[in-house]
Amino acid sequence: MTVFALHFSPTGSTKQIAERIAASLDLEFKSIDLTVQSLKSFDFDAKDTAVVAMPVFAGRIPAKAAEALKMCRANGTCALSVAVFGARAVEDALLETNDILKAQGFKTIASAAFVARHSVVPSVAEGRPDADDLTQIDAFAKNAADKIMRKDFTEPEVPGHRPYRDAPTAGVAPLVSSACIKCGLCAENCPAAAIPLNAPNTTDALKCFMCMRCVRLCSAKARALPEPVLNHVEELLKNTVKGRTKNEIYL
Asked: Is residue 125 one of the residues assigned to a domain?
């Protein structure tokens, strides 16, 4: 059996959780980054196990993440699906992930939603996943492994609705200040190909889905969301995130 960690992870938290779970199943796991632009197709067989982790953006998985996941083809491969969210809500993201996995030939036998630091407002869920989260992540991996050993391939029931909630619309992108040194790192790593390689101090707002990868990668700190947009998101989270948000496990 080969264990794979598949992750769409613009700012790193989703990758961290996917690889933590995969390592609990097999220290020799293989990691596949679905975030990169030059995607190719991947094939998995019935002897493999895939940990599939997707970030939650406004209750959905990003369209680019769904597109990448649809490049993966399986033949009865066991899957552990994971939604990583910034403490607000999972909504339809886990259901959407499981639906795609089923259509691509995976058998989802365990699902979970884990909290990580919010990508737009890092002060929300700051420090997560923390020690308590990691304990729950490890327990989830163990319980999923036990289920596979028992040959229990029943699919868990997860929250969400069909049709899914409307996907967030494009039109907002980080602004670039004069501090930009045009190194091109953001353009090379943009999942949406929204930053031209020949003009890395610009962003196509119609392609950008506010994943915040460019903001995190910029060593010059030249990229930031427009202040009114950031203030709006902060106010929304202030009104919806109360106390410590719990992780969700479905076996």
From this structure: yes
Kindly report the pTM of this predicted structure: 0.96
Total tally of structural domains belonging to the chain: 2
In a domain, 241, yes or no: no
pLDDT digits (tens, 9 = 90+) for 26-73: 989 999 999 986 678 999 999 999 999 999 999 999 999 999 999 999
| 133 and 188 part of one domain | no
Task: Tell me, yes or no, whether 250 lies in a domain.
Answer: no
Domain of residue 153 covers 3-163
User: DSSP for the chain?
Assistant: --EEEEE--SSSHHHHHHHHHHHHH-TT-EEEETTSSS---EEE-TT-EEEEEEE-BTTB--HHHHHHHTTEEESSEEEEEEEEE-SS--TTHHHHHHHHHHHTTEEEEEEEEEE---SSSTTTTTT-S-HHHHHHHHHHHHHHHHHHHTT--PPPP----SSPPPPPP-----EE-TT-----HHHHH-TT--S-TT-TT---TTT-----HHHHH-TT--EE--HHHHHHHHHHHHHH--SPPPPEEE-
Give the tens place of pLDDT for each residue, 210-224: 999 999 999 999 999
